[in-house]
Amino acid sequence: MIATIAQWRGFKAATWLGWEISSNWTRPLMFLIYSVLRPISAAFILVVMYRVISGRAPGTTDYLAFLVSGVAFWSFVQYGFAGLSNGMAEDRGEYRMLKYVYTSPVDFYLYLFGRGLAQLASAVASALIVLVVATIALSLPIDPLRVNYPVLVVGSVLALAAVIGMAMAYGFLQLQAVDAHGYGELGASVLYVISGAIFPITVLPGILATIASLSPLVYWMELIRRSLLDSHAIRMFPTLSDADVLLRLVVTTVATLLLAHLVFSWADRRARRRGLIDMESNW
Amino acid sequence: MTLLIVVSVLFGVAYSTSGILPALGVFILTICALYCLGMLLASVFLFYHREAWHLADALQEPIYFLSGFYFPIRSLGAFVGGVGSLIPLTLGLDAIRQLILPGTPQFIPLHWEIVAVVGQIVLYAVLSQVSLRYLERRARQDARLILRST
After folding, report:
1. To which H or E segment does residue A244 belong?
2. CA-nearest residue of chain B to A22?
């Protein structure tokens, strides 16, 4: 019981620390505004590009909804993946505290999970605001009263677990490099291409489409669109029912977490052997 | 430059060769104006310490949006395009596209864009000097020069 309380306290401290570091100790309202400006602009860049290319042809609204919903929820990956994996490099190089956390009684997984979860508030705010602004500005077919919230929440929780798992493994791999800052964005950009966030994965070349279909992010994006847009959703998997897509999300999430654990354990052993956790690195 | 060459070859983009030298001139003017704007904004970093870091991060995408990085600025309309024109990159990019990619939808005529960018160099240079002096004085008074901000 005492051990559980100690772990819970460690988790709470990690979440709070993650929030303070990612917000750089700014006022919450300011940070929220900054966190929202970026995804809104990113969404509108894609919308204007699409409108310029399509020339406002009829029937473009469904694809705009596809685009906006993908970009809005992408903030979860951006904050969760890039934020956490960069955070591990920052903890080691900039704040020089990774070694203390690593040797503390708090489970290292739990610490990283808390650190990653702190980004959730920014991601939720960002996704909500992009959706609301874009729905009103572009008259998208999203009706808040008809959204399938249970599927949306279950899908997002599963995807978030997969994203944090991938970020932990990727973050530990990053520690093998001396100057690892910014590699988090690089990893997130690769995921962006194969996640079906801005285009259906069927347009990808064969091998990339196969790799993409093994990622939980694709099924998450599909579930988001089905739950938000219902019959207006452009489907990446038209032959699959909602339950099938959810099942695939569960399977790929479990597989991703398993693979992430193996990579994490390997990178952890290697980091310990080579003294990478307390290595003097960038900054 | 590598990106420009590789992508142009891959996607068969054709440029007007007669426009390359004038475009280089506009590019240099735009860079000068951007540096002056950068100096103006640098003073903000002295003053707003931690929050300026996020400000710079958050402004990155809006600047991509407002300066027409990925689409002709004309498609944003006169008002939003006019606001975006306060960023020297907006008019500079539009002018460069007019010079090397004839047929690109133009925002305002080329010669007015060049005049505006030159005007921005003078304006932002003067404003940055005034602003830096003022904020440096304030920063000394408030002991912000040695504040660790990130």
Report:
1. helix A242-274
2. B54
